[in-house]
Amino acid sequence: MDYALNNKRRVVRLVLQWAAVYGDLLQEDEVAMAFLEEFYVSVSDDARMIAALKEQLPELERIVKQISEDAKNPQKKHKVLLQHFNTSDERAQKRQPIRGSDEVLFKVYCMDHTYTTIRVPVAASVREVISAVADKLGSGEGLIIVKISSGGEKVVLKPNDVSVFTTLTVNGRLFACPREQFDSLTPLPEQEGPTVGTVGTFELMSSKDLAYQMTIYDWELFNCVHELELIYHTFGRHNFKKTTANLDLFLRRFNEIQFWVVTEICLCSQPSKRVQLLKKFIKIAAHCKEYKNLNSFFAIVMGLSNVAVSRLALTWEKLPSKFKKFYAEFESLMDPSRNHRAYRLTVAKLEPPLIPFMPLLIKDMTFTHEGNKTFIDNLVNFEKMRMIANTARTVRYCRSQPFNLDAAQANKNHQDVRSYVRQLNVIDNQRTLSQMSHRLEPRRP
């Protein structure tokens, strides 16, 4: 009897942990909700005969009740998101995680650069996107969906692909066309990015304020990422038919900040101003590190180490030695040797809350997944699952304490700074940036 009782209690404990990990995502899974309700009824029946099970029943009842109430709550119903994945009233509200049932209004372009706006679920497959476009155009004969980067790289999406809206590059766009028009597709002029820098705007903002507002925004994005999105991303979104929108947007933010640094420097024609920009970005990086925002910290440092910036020898040689020393220290943290040991040792000393360098966590999970079989002799490879879980636990640990930056640090012009860091306009075409860099400082003969 004791053996059977212990097994039952272990099963209840496992289900409670599973429900805690899934959290709000359970509302989107009808099978999981049905299982949980049936499981609760079974445990309730057993608890009438086995008193030892009663102590676990209240927690199980609380979870089932909470999920049922949340599912009925109108505020938890699906949202309609705009092209940039904001709700129209987001300024007044705390950012909410994007769910697969949320809908997005999105522009899909044609060969002649006209567009049609479709409204589909965020987790829609390419097949569903084609159907929505066909309804608007009145014909869907032989349509394909293509994502085009600012540099003109074209990728035809497969019918079963999902999360197509959030996996675009920073300036990427979606196109729909018959297959025979594929070779004629060209990027939109707007994809090229800005032609004038914003140094005149953000040089008036303090570096600390910029880092502060960047960290607040990054935390909002990071806090919306569900640990399961890392699993979907690693094992293949199409295998789960679930969205990774929150993770995709957080990863895109890293690229956006990186290209922001390169864009501003390459759009600055005055050598003295470029030196000031280098100093500014190094200061912002230092404050991001101080705020334990390692994602933006590394994005800025990687932007400064981009070849379009690092080759500007005449600019770098005018940088004061104090700033060169800071930058050298920052670069040393990016050293990939010994599996990014320098970074890992630094993070190990930090207490939560902190914003981790997400691309490295993704790399860890991908390496574990591709280097180990999921099944061995038709049995689940639990060692692999433990390694995957350890990375997911890192994300949970980083958010295990509430993020409360001192609001007093916000300057009187914090609204201007807030708006600026949330609407960065960048050039994400490396070829264009390199050409601009060579115009600023031509290669020496």
UniProtKB/TrEMBL annotation:
It comes from Myotis myotis. The keyword Chaperone does not apply. This is Rap guanine nucleotide exchange factor 4. GO terms for biological process: Ras protein signal transduction. InterPro entries: Ras-like_GEF (IPR008937), Ras-like_Gua-exchang_fac_N (IPR000651), Ras_G-nucl-exch_fac_CS (IPR019804), Ras_GEF_dom_sf (IPR023578), RASGEF_cat_dom (IPR001895), RASGEF_cat_dom_sf (IPR036964), Ubiquitin-like_domsf (IPR029071). GO terms for molecular function: guanyl-nucleotide exchange factor activity. Gene3D superfamilies: Phosphatidylinositol 3-kinase Catalytic Subunit, Chain A, domain 1 (3.10.20.90), Ras guanine-nucleotide exchange factors catalytic domain (1.10.840.10), Son of sevenless (SoS) protein Chain: S domain 1 (1.20.870.10). Residues 206-443 form the Ras-GEF domain. Residues 1-68 form the N-terminal Ras-GEF domain. PROSITE patterns: RASGEF, RASGEF_CAT, RASGEF_NTER. Keywords: Guanine-nucleotide releasing factor. GO terms for cellular component: plasma membrane. SMART domains: RasGEF (SM00147).
